Amino acid sequence: MKVRCIANTGKDLSERSIKAGQLRATEYNGLDLGKIYTVYSMFLLRGRIDYLLSVGDSRLSSWSPAELFEIVDHSLPPSWYFIFKGYETENNNGPVEALWGYKEMVYDLEHNSNLTECEPEDLKIFYQRKAEIDKWQKLKSKKT
Q1: CB–CB of 84/94 below 8 Å?
Q2: Among 69, 74, 84, 130, whose Cα sits 20 to 30 Å from the Cα of 2?
Q3: 61: CB partners within 8 A, 6+ apart
Q4: Please, which residues have CB within 8 angstroms of residue 25's CB and are 6 or more apart in sequence?
Q5: What are 39-75's pLDDT values in tens digits?
Q6: Checking phi first, is residue 52 left (phi over 0); if not, alpha (psi -120 to 50) or beta?
Q7: Distance of CA 69 to the CA centre of its chain
Q8: What is the pTM of this model?
Q9: Which H helix or E strand runs over 134?
Q10: What is the pLDDT, as a whole number, of residue 122?
């Protein structure tokens, strides 16, 4: 899946995203207007979808609200997995309601938080899965 950045500040987010915890004052540094990004994972939280993107050569972005992008390629990698955790309730174990992405993102409960903390093993997994997804994107674009 590929998306084009159409906004990069919290000022551009809907009320739904603000109610879900985003801030109007947020500036999504590293997101360039008009640039096309590959999506490496997605999650659903309180009715809002966020994308995991890679910005720059070696930096991993934080999760970015889907509202900041328009989809330019709707296809999902065949290696992706999906998990639905149900709607958030007081008894739910976590705020994420659904998650799409590579195997470790979906099945390893610690991978996302370890990735955010730049744990070396999790970064290694991410970059391996990123390379696989990038290769698939490249092959797919050659066929069309």
Answers
A1: no
A2: 84
A3: 28, 30, 31, 52, 53, 54, 55
A4: 10
A5: 999 998 877 899 999 886 556 667 889 999 999 999 9
A6: beta
A7: 11
A8: 0.85
A9: helix 120-143
A10: 93
